[in-house]
UniProtKB/TrEMBL annotation, chain B:
Name used for this protein in its record: ABC transporter substrate-binding protein
Organism (species): Mesorhizobium mediterraneum
Bias kind Basic and acidic residues: ranges: 119-156
One GO BP annotation of this record: metal ion transport
Record has Hydrolase as a keyword: no
Coiled-coil zones: 184-218
Matching SUPFAM superfamilies: Helical backbone' metal receptor (SSF53807)
Location(s), subcellular: Cell envelope
Principal place of residence: other
One GO cellular component term noted in the UniProt record for this chain: cell envelope
Stretches for region Disordered: 119-158
InterPro entries: AdhesinB, AztC-like, Bact_metal-bind_prot9, Lipoprotein_PsaA-like, ZnuA-like
Length: 403, 328
């Protein structure tokens, strides 16, 4: 077993109330992984005490993704043509009645997946699929392989380069279908391939496919005509088209995120609206929520299932109550970040680390910390450069002495 | 994480609060039931004084249910929330938190006879199990005996004993009385008359079991949902999946079951309404048993199905079991 890093740095919080209190202690550890808008690096910050843990040099500016388990963080470096795996150093082991936490130093996982223009990154059940737009190819690797430092990926090809997406769905792969006449445009549908790469069934139409998310046992893709909702069918994935409601104004979703704890999807819908979706319903599935200005970024709260957060270009963070379907609170955090200009200009990103919401402010070089319960700003952390993409990893668990 | 412990604490706190809700006479009591069987009990006790929403509907599997924002809204505006407890509703804690409800969360298995899961630890990841064992060894040296790491979970499927169903009904009447004192006499009278009906049902079940030869009382279903039925009525159930449908049966589990079926000479095999029939069909074909029908384990059928109420469900199950065994 590893050394008990967390308690060694004195962030052990509570003594467990269990009968083995003398031997097990409750430890809370949260880490922020932050990429820079210009520099090829990932900074790791201890979200509990604000200290810097490490900086990893990578090959290009990155967008970041964390695995479901939190054990792995991926830096997708579109311009440098590589995806780098990072072991977060935090892992949990479920013992039913309690969970054990193991905390080690974060480190580069020694896994790189190279290819032209890596873009969308999707995890499903411990398998990661990275889509390489420049090749129209998806490379799929398991979390186990990444943590063992093995670049052990398999490849699935589509018919043409495209701004695409792939999902490793059990023994099948869901692949975006390129626009044949206009390869520069968004994909037009989803194809299901079996283990041998053979197409199963027809193409599921999904014009302007962009945006994918999971919530619980449901996966969805956003299209110009609504959503494709994927569930585990009898042997093969079952795919259902959920059209946008007639009551919605004209628009479409191009970015989707999925609820944790409650099953819902949250998408953009036009520049200054978001839409809450219950993908299990046939009707009344969509609830439109207007924002004061255009949306910059959004994130769900994995702890307080009732809330999601939306950052808008006027510098405000909004607490969205997904049960009521309305904005419950708003908080001014940064100077305005206009959505005019390039989509990938440096603008704030939001992550939730336990009881804190963390918002990057790339032009000021700080992270704003907001208490998730009171929804008040509690502090900030300076980060060199232009802190941009952010993911958080962590939680609470027991550590046992002598292990 | 200690989700289960927190849940227990949460429910404990909420149910022990004095209930201060008062309901205007003209307005029906708003009741949320976690799943269809509880909703049926509540309908029988509440009659036309209550409006009931069931979160997990007919043929739904509460073990793996994913609550929706609309469910949180329903719980948030409920006067009473009726749940099974014993960790049957894995989604309950997050749902209650998201709803911010002030309604009492009433665990209907409280006061009932609860069975511990005596099953072997065959559903667990072996690495974890091994590590858990190390943990025990270390603790034993320190003089600790208190078991943790999965042992002795309570079996939540208490409604499969009619005797326990009577406890559910009493608990519902108490909860309704506390929330709506004006209707209390009605609730108690309803509970009593329904209690008589299910007592008669229990006699029916016992009589049906008595007609099954003792040597033929071992059958197969897909998950361990019938431990209470076995305990009360003497039919032995074997299943590839454990007391929750959450973890899938491993190939080794299935092989062990097939071996056991051959040794125990099981008389019949059944699919369940809440689980995928594929695995049962596979076991049936490998053991030469014919699928004897569909049992309703953790949910009622739809309105037009054969198990639209609890009484119909129990009657359907025993009739199906008896029919399949006697035909075998
Ligand atoms: Zn069950």
């Amino acid at each position: 077993m590893s050394t008990n890093w967390a308690s060694a740095t004195a962030i052990a919080l509570l003594l467990s109330l269990s009968t083995s209190a003398a031997h097990a202690e409750e430890v809370t550890a949260w880490r922020l992984f932050i990429s820079d808008h210009a520099d090829p690096k990932v900074t790791v910050i201890d979200a509990v005490n604000g200290g810097k843990l490490d900086t990893f040099q990578i090959k290009g500016p990155a967008s970041l993704h964390r695995s479901e388990s939190g054990r792995t963080v991926f830096a997708v470096q579109g311009s440098a043509g590589v995806v780098t795996g990072i072991a977060s150093g935090i892992s949990f082991e479920d013992h039913g009645e309690h969970g054990d936490i193991d905390v080690e130093a974060p480190k580069l996982a020694d896994v790189e997946i190279a290819g032209e223009k890596p873009s969308h990154f999707v995890e499903h059940d411990g398998d990661f699929a990275v889509f390489f737009d420049g090749e129209g190819v998806a490379r799929i690797i398991s979390e186990k392989a990444v943590l063992e430092g093995k670049s052990d990926f398999r490849e699935v090809k589509t018919d043409a380069p495209q701004h695409g997406v792939a999902v490793a769905y059990g023994s099948h792969v869901l692949l975006s279908e390129p626009h044949r006449e206009k390869p520069d445009e968004l994909p037009v549908g989803i194809r299901v391939a079996d283990k041998a790469g053979m197409q199963v069934g027809g193409i599921h139409a999904c014009p302007d496919l962009h945006g994918e998310a999971s919530s619980g046992n449901i996966l969805a893709f956003a299209c110009a005509i609504g959503l494709l909702v994927v569930t585990q069918g009898d042997g093969t994935p079952a795919i259902r088209h959920l059209p946008y409601a007639d009551s919605l104004s004209d628009g479409k979703t191009t970015t989707l995120i999925g609820g944790r704890g409650l099953q819902y999807l949250l998408g953009n819908y036009g520049a200054d609206k978001v839409v809450l979706i219950d993908p299990t319903l046939e009707s009344d599935a969509f609830r439109l929520i207007s924002l004061p200005t255009r949306r910059v970024h959004f994130a769900v709260d994995p702890v307080r299932a009732k809330f999601a957060y939306v950052f808008t270009e006027d510098g405000q963070l909004h607490q969205l109550d997904v049960v009521k379907g309305e904005i419950a609170n708003s908080l001014k955090l940064t100077d305005p970040y206009s959505m005019d200009g390039h989509w990938s200009d440096p603008r704030p990103r939001v992550a939730v680390a336990g009881d804190r919401i963390v918002v990057t402010d790339p032009l000021q070089g700080v992270l704003h910390l907001v208490d998730a319960t009171s929804f008040e700003k509690t502090g900030d952390i300076a980060v060199e450069g232009k802190p941009f993409n952010i993911v958080s990893v962590g939680g609470s668990g027991q550590t046992h002495e002598g292990e | 994480m200690s989700r289960t412990l927190k849940l227990a604490a949460l429910v404990g706190v909420i149910t022990s609060l004095p209930i201060t809700l008062s309901v205007a006479a003209a307005e029906n009591l708003k009741v949320v039931a976690s799943f269809s069987i509880i909703a049926d009990f509540a309908r029988n006790v509440g009659g036309d004084r209550v409006d009931i929403i069931a979160l997990v509907g007919p043929n739904g599997d509460a073990h793996v249910y994913e609550p929706k924002p609309a469910d949180a809204a329903a719980v948030g505006s409920a006067d009473v929330v009726l749940v099974n407890g014993l960790q049957f509703e894995g989604f309950l804690q997050r749902l209650v938190e998201a709803s911010a409800t002030k309604a009492p969360i009433v665990e209907l298995t409280k006061g009932g006879e609860v069975l511990r899961n005596t099953e072997e630890e065959h559903h667990h990841d072996h690495d974890n199990a091994a590590k858990g064992e190390e943990g025990h060894a270390a603790e034993a040296e320190e003089g600790h005996e208190e078991p943790h790491h999965h042992h002795g979970e309570s079996d939540p499927h208490a409604w499969q004993s009619v005797h326990n169903a009577e406890v559910y009904v009493k608990n519902i009447a108490n909860a309704f009385c506390a929330a709506d004192a004006a209707g209390c006499d009605t609730y108690r009278a309803n509970a009593e008359s329904y209690g008589e009906q299910i007592e008669a049902l229990e006699e029916e079940i016992k009589a049906a079991v008595a007609e099954i030869p003792e040597g033929k009382r071992t059958i197969i279903t897909s998950h361990d949902a019938f431990g209470y039925f076995e305990h009360e009525y003497g039919i032995k159930f074997l299943a590839p999946e454990g007391i929750s449908t959450e973890s899938e049966a491993s190939a080794a589990d299935v092989a062990a079951l097939i071996k056991q079926i051959r040794q125990d000479k099981a008389s019949a095999i059944f699919v369940e309404n809440v689980t995928n029939p594929r695995l049962i069909e596979q076991i049936a074909s490998e053991t030469g048993l014919k699928v004897g029908g569909e049992l309703y384990s953790d949910a009622l059928s739809g309105e037009n199905g054969p198990a639209a109420t609890y009484i119909e469900m129990m009657r359907h199950n025993i009739t199906t079991i008896k029919g399949a065994i006697l035909a075998s």
